[in-house]
Every structure is written in structure tokens, then in C-alpha cells.
Amino acid sequence: MANKMKGIAVPFTFNVTGYPAAAEDMRALHDSIFTILSTTPGERVMRPEFGSWLIRLISSNLNTVTALRAREEVFRAVGVW
Predict the structure, then answer these.
(1) What letter does residue 53 receive in the DSSP assignment?
(2) Which of 3, 7, 53, 70 could pair with 28 in a Cys bridge, judged by C-beta atoms 3.0 to 4.6 Å apart?
(3) Which residue blocks in the chain are alpha helix, DSSP H?
(4) Which residues of 45-78 are buried (b: 16+ CB within 10 A; e: fewer)?
(5) pLDDT confidence of residue 24
(6) Average of pLDDT values for 45-52?
(7) Residues 12-39: pLDDT tens digits?
């Protein structure tokens, strides 16, 4: 039997008892990857290296070089965290 991943859903949702609702399986994985990629390093005080530098590529020209840089940054950030 496979272990199910559990975590807190992002954005926060609450169950009927008032506690944060648990996210499971693919939803938890999706939320975790979204949080990594949407956080800029330095945003979190206690973990200043957490996140990705995708924000730097927003104003870049849309070409093969930018696509490869974005792909590399996604692999780096998700691989580290």
C-alpha cells in the first residue's frame, strides 16, 4: 500500500472544526511546486534562499534562450526544495 502525501492546502482552507484542511496527493504536490516557483528568494525571512528566480525572466524576450533559462530555473528550484 502506497503512503499518501499529506500537507496543509495552499491557499488555506479550513474544515468544520476550524483547523486547516489537509491537502492530499496531487493537490499537495501541485501546491508545493506552485509555492516554490512563485516565491522569490529573500521573501521568507527564516529561509532567505527558498524559492526561484523566475521573476527575473518576466521581462525577457520570448525566445529559445529564455525558455531554456526558465526550464533550468524550474529544475533547480524544485530539485533543491
Answers:
(1) -
(2) 7
(3) 25-38, 64-80
(4) eeeeebbbebeeeeeeeeeeeeeebbeebeeebe
(5) 63
(6) 92
(7) 677 777 776 666 666 777 888 899 999 9
